[in-house]
Amino acid sequence: MKIKNNKNLSLATKAIHGKHLHAFKGPVTFPIYQTSTYRFDSSDDAVRYAKGDPNVLVYTRYHNPTVNEVEERIALMEDGEAAALFSSGMAAISTTILTLCKNGDEIVSTPALYGGTYRFFRDTLTNYNVAVKYVDPNSLEDLLFLITPKTKVVYFETPTNPTLGLVDIEKLVKLTRDMEKEFRTKIAIIIDNTFATILNQKPFDFGVDVIVESSTKYLGGHADLMGGVVIGMKKLIHSVKALAKHLGGCADPFAAFLLDRSLKTFELRVQRQNENALALARVLEKHHKVLRVIYPGLQSHPQHKLAKKQMHGYGGMVTIEVKGGLRGAVKVCDSLKVAINAMSLGGVETLVSIPVYSSHVNMSNEELKKNGVTPGMIRISVGVEGIIDLIEDFKQALSRV
Ligand SMILES: *Cc1c(COP(=O)(O)O)cnc(C)c1O
């Protein structure tokens, strides 16, 4: 039985079985093709490949069975036509953008972006004469004048880092489509869905064209691999892969194998992270050393209604502001025993980081204000540990402030 494009199976079933939902002889797990190159049956194979035969394997930068298996599973999980796997999230993002934009084109983006993406837009794309304009997510109507006939991409993230603000996906898509009609152009709407993941937010249901994700985070989930993925229509993924051959950000077979292993527990892990995050957020909201808790699942989140509309779960990221400013935040992070003070997110282990020391380091007070970031903020990537252990850990660390 082929389950390709069967939307009704659960995320876990798709992740565990891929399209092999049949009596499949051989190994239960998909093997690692840890090889850079492939034997030709005869020199005819080289000719067949040159003529475009997709069944001839040539070189791992072009294709690899382990990598391709993971791509198929992720495409199934995310209800996309196809996916391309990369060596990192940034490789996936930069290759996708460079596939879609050429000299003279424009991008409209929301301003709260992952730092690497923001710097790629600011420092690299400008060298190729691709301009990026920013739209305030609170006035998405501005898309009506920011989008021009040169706009090829509308790019956004939601929830954003580290203040967990939301962008109204339905509204962004509608306004972009209106402008497309007006100019008779084609605009690719791209979401970075790393924070929410496909369990909590299904962008294709809202008409988004392309999902990019750092699989280093929730998809990988164990802080032991780097990867990135782009999911979309076959035609686009084909072009992305063609450019990836030149840019070279291909996934390594071993990293792909680790990711395959991670996907099987993805639903379990992220469900638990959703539960832990909500429970921790509720406790911290009542704590006298905590000034503010930002979590889309809390009634107190200014966009809670929008969160309920466009998210199925609220994710594992919680941001708090503690008393005592930066000194208070440092004290808490250095006193935690279960939670680890480290960059990154999405793993089974709870991590904390201080935005003014990490994602927003070296920013002026004005920039921090614009981004809503304060010195006393701590970003928590909630893991799958026992919730009681986490609550106790944060209580003892907060008591030192
Ligand atoms: C980490 C991250 C990236 C970049 O991914 P890498 O795998 O580190 O290259 C992009 N977007 C978001 C939202 C991220 O958290």
Question: Would you mind describing this structure in some detail?
Answer:
The chain has 401 residues and is α/β, with parallel strands linked by helices. The protein has two domains: 6-263, Aspartate Aminotransferase, domain 2 (3-Layer(aba) Sandwich), CATH 3.40.640.10; 267-398, Alpha-Beta Complex (Aspartate Aminotransferase, domain 1). Helix content is 39%, strand content 14%. It contains 15 helices and twelve strands. It has helices at residues 11-17, 43-50, 65-77, 89-100, 115-124, 143-146, 169-183, 197-200, 234-247, 253-263, 266-285, 304-310, 325-335, 365-371, 387-398; strands at residues 82-86, 106-109, 131-134, 151-157, 188-192, 210-214, 228-232, 290-294, 317-322, 340-341, 351-353, 377-381. The chain has a seven-stranded mixed sheet, sandwiched between helices. Helix 8 links the parallel strand 5 (188-192) and strand 6. Helix 4 packs across helix 9 (234-247). The longest helix has 20 residues, at 266-285. The protein starts with 10 loop residues before the first helix and ends with a helix. The model has no long low-confidence stretch (mean pLDDT 95). Bound molecules: pyridoxal-5'-phosphate. Residues 88-90, 114, 116-117, 157, 192, 194-195, 214, 216-217, 226, 228 line the site of pyridoxal-5'-phosphate.
